[in-house]
Amino acid sequence: MRVLVQRVKRARVTVDGEVAGAIDPQPQGLLALVGVTHDDDAATAQRLAEKLWKLRILDDERSASDVAAPILVISQFTLYANTDKGRRPSWNAAAPGPVAEPLVTEFTEALRRLGATVQTGVFGAHMEVELVNDGPVTVLLEL
Question: Which of 14, 37, 76, 119 is the catalytic position?
Fold first, then answer.
């Protein structure tokens, strides 16, 4: 499982012209793009949620848990693109939807159990993601 985290001033995801999820934190929040691979499981999702919740990338080396920063979680299978050969990415390392969707849900629910305010996109949908990156700060989390 990979989580690409961006520190944001605000973020929202739209599906078919309707806002599916949005955060407008005061002053900061996190956008988490989540990719799942074949050997991931619920324990991996839980550990990465804990890592994200405690990650000290907000102002003054604070974490989302320190300041109750909201988190927007969006599934992102393209985090497992393989571009080693040619010009067309391979998606073989990304888990198929029936495997990935429950793990993205588990990641989101683990954050909520930790106390996070979480908004989400729509799994498998064509989403438009808007954000104001703060810093910019972007970090890749993996186990």
Answer: 76
78 is catalytic: yes
Respond yes or no: is residue 138 known to be catalytic: no
Q: How distant, in Å, are the alpha carbons of 21, 37, 110 from that of 97?
A: 20, 10, 19
CA triplet 1, 137, 131: central angle to 5 degrees?
85
Is 77 labeled as catalytic in the residue annotation? yes
Mean pLDDT for back-to-back runs of 10 residues, the chain (143 residues) = 98 98 94 98 98 98 98 98 95 97 98 98 98 97 94
Cβ pair 69, 56 in contact under 8 A: no
- Amino acid letter, 85: K
pLDDT in tens, 94-124: 999 999 999 999 999 999 999 999 999 999 9
